[in-house]
Automatic annotation (TrEMBL):
The keyword Heme does not apply. This is NAD-dependent succinate-semialdehyde dehydrogenase. It comes from Komagataeibacter nataicola. Keywords: Oxidoreductase. InterPro entries: Ald_DH/histidinol_DH, Ald_DH_C, Ald_DH_N, Aldehyde_DH_dom, Aldehyde_DH_Superfamily.
Amino acid sequence: MMSYPDTLLFIDGQWQAASDGRTLDVLNPATAQVIGTVAHAGQPELAQALAAARRGFAVWSATPAFQRYQIMRRAAVLLRERAEEAATCMSLEQGKPVAEAHAEMAAAADIIDWMAEEGRRAYGRLVPARLMGVTQSVIRTPVGPVAAFCPWNFPVNQVVRKVSAALATGCSIIVKAPEETPASPAMLIRAFADAGVPPGVIGLVYGTPAEISETLIADDIIRKVTFTGSTAVGKILASLAGTHMKRVTMELGGHGPVIITADADITRAVSLLAAAKIRNAGQVCVSPTRFLIEKGVFEAFRSAYVARMQALVVGNGQRSGTQMGPVVSQRRLEAIEALVNEARDSGAKVETGGTRLAGPGYFYAPTVLTGLTADMRIMNEEPFGPISLLCPFDTLEDAIAEANRLPYGLAAYAFTGSGAVAARLRDTVRTGMLTINHIGLSLPEIPFGGIGDSGYGSEGGSEALDAYLDTRLVTSMDYM
C-alpha cells in the first residue's frame, strides 16, 4: 500500500507550507486513524494567492486559446498516467472503493479534454447592422480571477470542473479544496502545473472555510465565485458574492426523487438504482433518495431492492471486492444516524440496515425505510448517506406532486414503459436534470446543475463556460 503524502499549499507556482507552520490532520474514514497532514493557510498565504492570481490572469488571458488547449490536453495525459497513485490516495482519504476512485480519475481527464476543446470554440458573433458601414461585434472575454470552493465527496471531480472551465476561458483560479481530502486534488493541480500552466494561474489553499471564503469573495481581485456544497452554505456565499457584484455558479444540495411506474422494467430499475444509491456511500448530491413507486409494483420493487442492499459488501475501500466504503467522518455518521432514528421513532419501518457497523471507521449499513410520511425530517432534509426511502403512490399526479414538494431541484429519476408518461414527467417534474430509464448524468458534454434551492448555473456542457466569460458589444462605423 502506498504511503499517504502530506499536502502543501500551491501558490504562484510553488508548493509551500503555511508561514506559521499550521497543519490539519487528515483521517482515513475506514480506520478513523490519522494518515497525514495538510497545510493550513492564513491571511499571509491568502494575500499571496490573490496577488499571484492577478498576475496569472494577465498572462493566461493573453495566451492564445489554442496554446491553452495544448497545455490542458497535456494535463489530461499526465493525469491518466498518474491515475493509479491518485485513485489509491483518494480511497485512503475519502473512503470510496478504489474502483470508484479510478472512475473519478478517468472522468476528470475526460472533463479536461472536453473543456480544452470547448475553449477553442468560445466564439463571439457578428450581428447584422441596420445602417451601412456599421459593424456590430459581440465578443466574449474572460471574466477575471475565480475563487472556487469544493467539497470532499468528489475531491477531484468537483475541482476539475471548475479549474478546467476557468483555464479554457482564460481565467486564473484559486481553489479552496477540502481539508478532509486534500491530497488527491493536489495531485490534479500538480498535473496542470507540470503540463505548463504558468505560475499564478492556479492557486490551491486549505484552511478555515469561513476565513478563506470571506477573504477571497470580498477581495476586488476576484471576479467570479463557484461553489459546490450544501444549500445553507451556498446561500451565505451567494449573498456575500452579490454584495460585491461577483458572478456566481452554485451547485447545491438535492433530495433526488425517483418515479417508478407499474409498467417499468423493475429488474433494470433495481439494478441501476441500487448501484447509483451506494455510489460513494450515498454521499452524492444527485443520489436517488425518495423512491416513489406505483402501488401495483411496490412489493416487487421493495423485495428485490432490499435483497440487493443486503447482499452488498461493505468495508475498507482498499480491499478487493468492496462495493461500498465508509462515510467520510464521525459527524456525517452521527447526522445519518439521527435522521434514521427519528424516522423510526415516528413510525417508519427499517427494512434493512438502520445501524452503524461494528469495528473501526465510519461505516453505516445500507438502509431501506418504508412507512414514511411527508412530515418526517428525513423526507425533507438530504440524508447524504446510504439511505433509500421507499414510498408507494396511487396516481402519477401524486408522484409528481411529491417529487416537486421540496424546494430542491437538482436531479430526478424515472423508470417507465410509457412514452406518454416520460413526456409528462419531462414537462412537469421541476428539476435541473431528469434521467429516464437509465442513469445518464455527469458527462462532460452535458449540463450539470440545479434549479430552486439546488442552485443555478452549470458545471458541465458548453453552458459551463458561460459564467467565466463576459459578453461585450463593440459597434463601430466606418468613416464615409
